[in-house]
Amino acid sequence: PLFGKSLLWTVQQAMGDKWTTELHSAWGKTYLSVQYAMEPAMKASYKELDIAEEAQKVKQLVQESWALVEKDLDAHGIKFFMRIFTIAPGALQLFSFKDAKDLEKSPELAAHAGTVMRTVGQAVAGLSDVQTLIPVLQSLGGAHAKYGVQPEHFPIVGEALLWTLEQGLGPAGVWTSEVKDAWTKTWDTVVSVMEPALIESAREISAMTPADHMKRLVQDSWALVEK
After folding, report:
1. Domain ranges within the chain, ordered by starting residue
2. Which of 8, 10, 134, 164 is the most exposed place for a label (fewest CB within 10 A)?
3. What is the mean pLDDT of each run of 10 residues along the chain (227 residues)?
4. What residue stretches are annotated with the Globin domain (predicted)?
5. Which fold, 59-226?
């Protein structure tokens, strides 16, 4: 309304004595028609802008809080896995260190936890380039199928991750409801990319012949050698 009134006033000033009630009516109707035609597109643009601003805010909160966690990454990694095994003791059977006598001090657990936490860090950094991050997450999701990871493990990992972040950030007063919400949204997004890849890879593995399985083992092991 304000823009429309300003437009009509400007045209009126420009036309001076030639400005009639008929012209006022014509310009008013024309403006309303233009407004009606543009309004849906404008609302969509505003919505896209809001989404972009929210995504930027989430990225900032996640990256800034992760920078604090990285200062003691290995310790947080062990806490993270110990929390997973507290929530779901059966998950321990998926790992090579399942028979460790003192699990929390196991070198194998420490090494694996450090690798996983650094992978999380790479994903956090990748929030600045989502298009590059997506295929990385898809590959990661697919790779976990051969270890027996199931879709129902994602909520467990998510719960353990949020708990670990709270333990690390809470004492410093950084773990606010806003930061928790940002991490929750980020994890949900990660799962939405990894889970379909995991399911598809599991389906392919189940359909493999012995020869296919042998070929897959050779290719996967060689990929590790090439690194």
Report:
1. 2-45, 59-226
2. 10
3. 76 85 83 72 52 82 95 95 96 93 94 94 90 90 89 95 96 93 94 93 83 73 69
4. 51-199
5. Globin-like (1.10.490)
